[in-house]
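User: Please predict the structure of the protein below. I'd like the answer in structure-token form so I can feed it into my own downstream comparison script.

Assistant: Understood. Taking the following sequence of 469 residues as input:
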Amino acid sequence: MTNNIFKKYLVFSIILLFIVSGIASGYNHSNTSSSCDCEKVENTYIDYNFDVDFPTMKPIPIDSINIDSSVYDITIVDTPAEFSWMNMDGKDYSTPAKSQGNCGSCGIFSAMGALESLIKIREDRDDIDPDFSEQYVLSCLPEAALIPGEGCSGGMAYMVFKRIMETTPEGNNVNGAVFESFFPYLASDDVYCSHIREGWDERLVPILDCGQISIGHDSPQNRERIKSLIMDKGPVAAYMYVPLNPNVFHQWGFENHDPTDYWPYEERTFEVLNHEIVILGWKDDISIGNGGYWICKNSWGQNWGYDGFYNIEYGALFTGYLIDWVDYDLDSFDWPDEANRPSSPIVNGPTYGGVNVEYDYTISSIDEDDDPVYYTVVWDDGTNEKYLGPYNSGEEVTLTHTWSRLGRYQIKFKAHDVWGGQSDWTTISIILPKTKTINTPFLKIIEKYNHLQPVLERLFNHLTDNIYL
């Protein structure tokens, strides 16, 4: 008799425990929170769109570098001990770091990075974030690559600038950078130019001039040349050598995220250049062997370095041996006012759930000029979607996503307009806890009792500890 009562009580407790656990894991009300024991998804050294076989360009032997005859004559000026276009009297003239993915297109990314920042400097607008299309160069300007048509094998920022300026078939018959919204990045040189979205040629941002300078090996004199050029022309695209062992420079960036960290100099045999980045500034420091470091922007995603940026000691990895620069006419394009940016997206969707379940999120944003709106979503599980759209201003859009691992995810949504205007991020969370989601008609009846879950779990553990099968 007593044994039967005990068994019934045990079965009831177990059933009640699972029902309440189901509430905790499956309840989707946006205002509900839970202090569950979640399995966190740990980031590895793999950024979204970025494989462990990290991309560099096809190596360029030093003795094969041919400098254009129209070399820009650098005027040496007095330079301060510390300078950065990321912080000019409190203004940030940089643009967010991007990820080139599994494609050796660093030359294109460094070209766009330098041009985007220069536009902000010339316009004196730290409130805009021009975002130009690297895929346009890969797909529509094949002659910009070291091997024509194989942009993922590598290319020079200088050739990117040259082809963008040319109004010949090699330059797609127009002078101008194309906004990302018209040709989102696909990390492939096999995508046809015909995939570009309509209207791309109505909003081109022309380039005024460009050049390439062979600086040579690091020295105090050559540092002054680079510094003077950065103060005159803004951030510059710079070549360097990346060790091909992914556990060296590559891994260092995923482990060092402090803005004061820097990659140190060490003696190396110099033969090739295989990567291109953007130099935005410098900091002299007599406590460092070569007297300071360059402040740089990479194209390996925002989980590398500090938000995609990093510092490297003067002379390290031959940074700055070769420099590309670009210029822009501020009268060539009218940028929208700050007030005309799209509004931050309004997002509705679940905050709790389970793995391998498709969840819907509704999103909308208003553009005051009634221009089409695009969306970028970072799902925080190693995947993201860029420039979804176009959608009408204010249109409610439904996006779906499925997570395959347990954990807590911070989902970010951003709206863009056709001019490159961007909203602030809207962030929401979803928790996929360890407990299994159980669907039952009793959920709505007893969900208000989910605060009893810890008590029931302790009861269940006590009972099971005293059962002998």
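That's the full token string. The chain has three domains: 2-36+439-465, 60-327, 338-432.
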